[in-house]
């Protein structure tokens, strides 16, 4: 199939990136078992209140997920029906806040349901390579898609940069064959997913190399385990490490940041921008 020529989805992405970059994506997990805040926002009223707070703090996008994709194992897979039930109690209210909403799911049917309910972006942590129907849903709905690198298990002997590049190439081939406009794709190297802490640090340090794909880059390093490998800490104690990593990622070319701590990230980015402007 010929790649789509309709630029509606690309235009949506262009408008988002025009606000920054970097664009700040606030994380909303309506799950009982996410690695950092599992259960904290499982109650629909609490989840909507948190979404509103992130919007007030300066988030550009709200990313909502109802099935944990925690990168270190131990998550509980949920049925399609359960995932949609969790979302149905929260997503419509979040959409009404007025910010673009991203649906974080690996299921094409969940993505389709969420897009019908008002979500505008698909965030697939398996980069169109797990559910064979995901690319079709994205192409038909003409929405931006975040393609994240993932592996079932970490391999310390792996050349992680080459693995990420090969994964992205496969995802882009799938996207092209489905008719997804290339300009509507964001690449995410998947910090913490199928990677050792050292490999996660490598993909952050060498992020600029992925600019060769000519596509926007997203970094999702918030509260990840690699921070604890440098400075032992629990997820909620990793805000400082998250800020440091995100600032360096932006300097290396990150266009979007997926974060738990919106207010702190926005403040750090504003200070960074002011200092950069004064140079």
Q: List the uncertain runs.
A: 1-7
Radius of gyration: 17 Å
- What does the largest sheet look like? 8 strands, parallel
Order of adjacent strands in the largest pleated sheet: 6-5-4-3-2-1-8-7
Please give the oligomerization state of what you see.
Answer: single chain
The CATH first-level class comes to Alpha Beta
Describe, in short, the structure shown:
The protein has helices spanning 8-18, 44-57, 80-88, 91-95, 108-116, 134-141, 160-178, 197-205, 225-230, 239-251, 262-278, and strands at 23-29, 61-65, 101-104, 121-124, 145-148, 185-188, 218-219, 256-259. By secondary structure, it is of the alpha/beta class.
Looking at this protein, list some descriptive labels.
single chain, 43% helix, TIM Barrel, 8-stranded parallel β-sheet, globular, 279 residues
Detailed description of the structure:
Strands 6-5-4-3-2-1-8-7 form an 8-stranded parallel beta sheet, sandwiched between helices. Helix 5 packs parallel to helix 6 (134-141) and helix 10 crosses helix 11. Mean pLDDT is 91; it is low at 1-7. It is 43% helix and 12% strand. The protein is of the alpha/beta class. The protein has a single domain, classed as Alpha-Beta Barrel (TIM Barrel), CATH 3.20.20.20. It contains 11 helices and 8 strands.
């Amino acid at each position: 199939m010929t790649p789509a020529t309709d630029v509606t989805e690309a235009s949506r992405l262009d408008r988002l990136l025009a606000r920054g970059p970097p664009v700040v994506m606030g994380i909303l997990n309506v799950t009982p078992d996410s690695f950092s805040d599992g259960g904290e926002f499982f109650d629909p009223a609490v989840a909507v209140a948190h979404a509103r707070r992130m919007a007030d703090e300066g988030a550009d996008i709200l990313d909502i997920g109802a099935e944990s994709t925690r990168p270190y194992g131990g998550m509980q897979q949920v049925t399609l029906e359960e995932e949609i039930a969790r979302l149905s109690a929260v997503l419509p209210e979040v959409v009404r806040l007025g910010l673009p909403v991203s649906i974080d799911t690996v299921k094409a049917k969940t993505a389709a349901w969420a897009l019908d309910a008002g979500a505008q972006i698909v965030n697939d942590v398996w980069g169109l390579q797990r559910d064979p129907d995901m690319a079709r849903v994205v192409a038909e709905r003409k929405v931006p898609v975040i393609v994240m690198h993932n592996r079932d298990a970490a391999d310390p002997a792996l050349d992680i940069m080459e693995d990420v590049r090969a994964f992205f190439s496969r995802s882009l081939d799938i996207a092209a064959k489905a008719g997804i406009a290339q300009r509507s794709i964001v690449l995410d190297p998947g910090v913490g997913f199928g990677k050792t802490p050292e490999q996660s640090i490598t993909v952050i340090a060498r992020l600029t190399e992925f600019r060769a794909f000519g596509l926007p880059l997203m970094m999702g390093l918030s509260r990840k385990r690699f921070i604890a490998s440098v400075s032992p800490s629990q997820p909620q104690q990793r805000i400082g490490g998250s800020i440091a990593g995100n600032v360096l990622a932006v300097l290396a070319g990150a266009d979007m940041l997926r974060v738990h701590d919106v207010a702190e990230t926005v403040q750090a980015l504003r200070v960074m921008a002011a200092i950069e402007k004064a140079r």
